[in-house]
Amino acid sequence: MEPMSPEPQTEALDPRVLIVSGSPRAHGNSETLAERVAKQIGSTSAVTEIVRLRELDYSSCVGCELCRDGGICARFTDGMTPLYDKVRKAQGLVLISPVHNYNITAWMKAFIDRLYCFYELGYPRPGPWRSTLSDQDRKAVIVAVAEQTEVHDAGFTLEAMRRPLEALGYEVVDELLVSGVFEKGLVSSLPETLLAVDSAGRTLTQALVR
């Protein structure tokens, strides 16, 4: 299945960053890192917004493909609905997820799956395809937070965020696995981790202003 040629971009992107936390736990390590990277990016005058998926009521994608007409999920009007415009307009995206059973959380998986409406698909299937977000100089950072201390025990978590973002047209400019962390807020006492998150935030903002 080959990608279609991109269509010209007609809407200017905001040099803002949407930060999405996929943790079901309030005030945990993922949210702590989301707030940290927001502060770092905000120090460069870039506008940031944190989305806490646990606060939203939304359904998983059911594969009905009603989004083929209009480029937005037409099956559900729920907590994801206002996020489409935010994703479309923001040039930068940060995804942060704990490791659940070698993978991203169900909240993050549902969020990513609901971005399927940004694809245009040719027929007959499988045919050529294109993302309406591609070729717009979009940049992303991904972060996985793991209780496990061994890298292989984090499973597919980073890949499960990276590959969909790349297919949608984002360049993932940095990725970070924070391992050996479980107790709520523990990352706040890990200076090396905080510095790594700050670095990822700087890398993203520098990529956005090129």
Commentary on this structure:
Helix 1 (29-42) packs across helix 5 (191-208). The model has no long low-confidence stretch (mean pLDDT 92). The chain has one domain (14-158, 171-208): Flavodoxin domain (Rossmann fold, 3-Layer(aba) Sandwich). A five-stranded parallel sheet has the order 2-1-3-6-7, sandwiched between helices. A two-stranded antiparallel sheet has the order 4-5. The longest helix is centred in the last third of the chain and has 18 residues, at 191-208. The chain has helices at 29-42, 81-89, 106-113, 157-168, 191-208; strands at 14-21, 47-52, 90-98, 119-121, 129-131, 138-145, 170-178. With 210 residues, the protein is an alpha/beta fold. Helix content is 29%, strand content 22%. It contains five helices and seven strands.
Quick structural overview:
By secondary structure, the protein is of the alpha/beta class.
Mean pLDDT: 92
Shape: globular
Indicate the percent of residues in helices: 25-40%
What composes the largest sheet? Answer: 5 strands, parallel
Looking at the overall shape, the CATH architecture is 3-Layer(aba) Sandwich
Radius of gyration using CA atoms only? 17 Å
Order of secondary-structure elements: EHEHEHEEEHEH
Assembly classification: single chain
- Say how many strands there are: 7
